[in-house]
Amino acid sequence: MTQPQAWTGFVKTLLLTAGGLVAALMLFVLLVDPYDNVPFSPPMARPMMDDNQRFLYPGLVRHGAFDSAVFGTSTSRLLQPAHLDGLFGGRFANLAMNSATAWEQYKIADLFLRTVPRPRTVVVGLDRVWCESDADSQRLTFRPFPPWMYDDDPWNDLLYLLNGKTLEIAARLVEYHLGLRPPRLGPDGYEVFVPPDNQWSWAKVEAKIYGGPKRAIPPAEPPYRPTEAERQSWRFPALAWLDELVGRVPPGAQPVLAFMPVHVAAMPQPSSPPAAREEECKSRVARIAAAHGAALVDFRFPSRITSEDTNYWDSLHYRVGIADWIERSLATAVRERRDDPEGAWRLLVAPPAEGPRRGPVS
To answer: Where are the stretches annotated Disordered (predicted)?
Structure first.
C-alpha cells in the first residue's frame, strides 16, 4: 500500500469513528431525553437533574399535569406546592427561577398559559426586576436560556441537544435510575435550597444581610418628593408583559400577585428616589391587578417580618418557616379580602367578590 493510500485509509477510519461516536452520543441523548422535550423518546421517569431551572421547567409544564403555578425569582422558590394545593385547591408547580429576569419569568408563564388547558391559580411573586427601567433590554443573565424550548415546535429542540451540558444531565439521569444520584428538584419544581434551620447563626448571616456589621437604615434627608411629571416619566417596561399575562388568565381562574418580603436591608432607603420609584411601580401594578380581577398582596415593606433578622439567611432569602407563613397569608388575604391585623401584609387590590372581572388597563 502506498503512502497516499495509507493516509486516505487513516482519514476514512478517523471520520467513520468520529461520525459513529457522534451518532452514538446523539442516540444516547435522544433516548434518555433528560429535559423531556424529545417528541419520540421512550416513556420513562425523568426527574429534574439540572441546576438551571430554565432548561427544566418547559418539560414540567408540558408533561406535569399541573393546573396552578408559582412564578418568580428565588424569593418565591420556598413556596411549597403541596401546601398551596391545600390552601387554594388545584395542583401547583413551583416554576420560580434563581435570579430570573422579568423576561424569563414572562416566558415560562406564557408557556404555562399556552399549554395548560384550564388554569386554576396563577401566583406571580414580584421583585424589583419587574420595576427595572431597562428590563426590556436586559432580558437575560449569565445563565443560559433556551428559547427553542419555549416555542411550540418540539422538533427544533433537536438542533441544540448535542452538547456537553446535555450529555452531563443525561448521564445524571442514568445515575438516578441506577440509584446513584437523587433528583435535583422535586417533581413539582420544589426544592429547599436554604440550609437547615439548626445551622442558622448570627455570625453566619450578619454580613449577608447588612454587607458588614448591623446598622440602622435612616430615611433619606431631605426626603425626596417627586413631581407628577417625574412620576409619569419613569419607565417600567416589564409591566407591559405582566399586564398581558394577567389579562390572559382565563375567567374562572384566579391570578394572585405578591410583592415578596425581602429583608429591609434589601429595600430602597426610605424617602429616597429609589423608594419613590418603587412606590410608583407598585401603584402601576395595582392598576393592572384591578383591571384584570387579580389579587395584589404586598409583603415588601418594613414590618415585623421583614425587620426581624432571625427570619432571614441573607437580605433576600427567608427561612422555611417564613415561607409557610407567606403561603397561609396569601390564602387568607385572597379568601378574606383583608389586610393583616398585625400589619405584616397589605392587600393592595382585592379580588372581585363575585368572581374575576377583566378589562384593559387604561
So the answer is: 335-362
Assigned C-alpha cell, 238: 416589564
User: How does the average pLDDT of the chain come out, rounded?
Assistant: 93
- 165 lies in some domain: no
Cβ–Cβ < 8 Å for 312, 260: no
Among 313, 318, 74, CA closest to 209: 313
Give the residue-averaged pLDDT of 150-159: 93
Grid cell digits, residue 143: 445563565
On whether residue 270 sits in a domain, the answer given is yes
| C-beta of residue 64 within 8 angstroms of C-beta of residue 110 | no
Residue 171 amino acid letter: A
pLDDT, tens digit, 9 for 90 and up, residues 294-351: 999 999 999 999 999 999 999 999 999 999 999 999 999 999 999 999 999 999 999 9
Residue 100, domain member (yes or no): yes
Q: What is the pLDDT of residues 82-139, one digit of tens each?
A: 999 999 999 999 999 999 999 999 999 999 999 999 999 999 999 999 999 999 999 9
CA distance 99 to 105: 10
Domain containing residue 305: CATH number = 3.40.50.1110
5 domain-assigned: no
Q: Which residues pair with 121 in a beta bridge?
A: 68, 254
Total domain count, the chain: 1
In whole angstroms, what is the distance from residue 87 CA to residue 348 CA? 20
- Under the banding of pLDDT at 50, 70 and 90, the label for residue 360 is very low
pLDDT at 180 over 70: yes
End-to-end Cα distance, the chain: 83
SS3 15: helix
Q: Is the pLDDT of residue 231 over 70?
A: yes
- Per DSSP bridges, beta strands 254-259 and 92-94 are unpaired
Domain, as residue range, for 303:
49-154+187-349
Any residues with CB less than 8 A from the CB of 334 and at least 6 apart, and which? 88, 254, 256, 295, 297, 351
CB 192 within 8 A of CB 320: yes
